[in-house]
Design brief:
This protein is α+β, with helices and mostly antiparallel strands and about 150 residues long. Helices cover about 35% and strands about 25% of the residues. Strands 1, 2, 3, 4, 5 and 6 form a six-stranded mixed β-sheet that branches.
Length: about 150
């Protein structure tokens, strides 16, 4: 199955986006850079939210990123995941940001392949606060394969 077919089989919702204040995806050459996509899950890891809730929040971000990439590129086919930056709204004591952002990486591995086009570089960082008190924000870089 192609990445687009896998996403549809997983019931990833694709919906047309209206242009906003900033571009959700910017293209330069054969690269797609996404803006940060925030989770609908609110709160702080280490102060009320569990790692599992954080993983769900990161997966939400991946779904939103895929929708934005689909809007910009028209398909998920022919893409390679290059890099993720995962930002986790967390306390100073919380040190499992990498486990939270696995929620995003896992979905991208499922769609693009863990050892193929979904094998990516990643940073997972803790932040004192994220806009709108979202639990997670993720941005991504995709390569358009030629």
């Amino acid at each position: 199955m192609s990445p687009q077919e896998k996403a549809l089989a997983l019931k990833i919702p694709f919906a047309k986006q209206e242009p906003g204040y900033l571009a959700m995806v910017a293209k330069t050459g054969n690269l797609l850079f996404t803006s940060g996509h925030v989770s609908d899950i609110k709160g702080k890891l280490g102060a009320g939210l569990s790692v599992d809730q954080g993983r769900s929040a990161a997966r939400e971000c991946a779904v939103k990123i895929l929708n934005s990439v689909w809007n910009a590129h028209g398909t998920l086919d022919g893409l390679r995941v290059v890099k993720l930056l995962g930002c986790v709204n967390s306390t100073l004591e919380f040190d499992e940001q990498h486990l939270v952002i696995n929620g995003c990486s896992d979905l991208l591995h499922e769609i693009f392949g863990k050892t193929g086009d979904g094998y990516h570089a990643r940073s997972a960082l803790g932040f004192a606060q994220i806009p709108t008190n979202s639990a997670v924000e993720v941005e991504a870089i995709f390569e358009i394969k030629t």
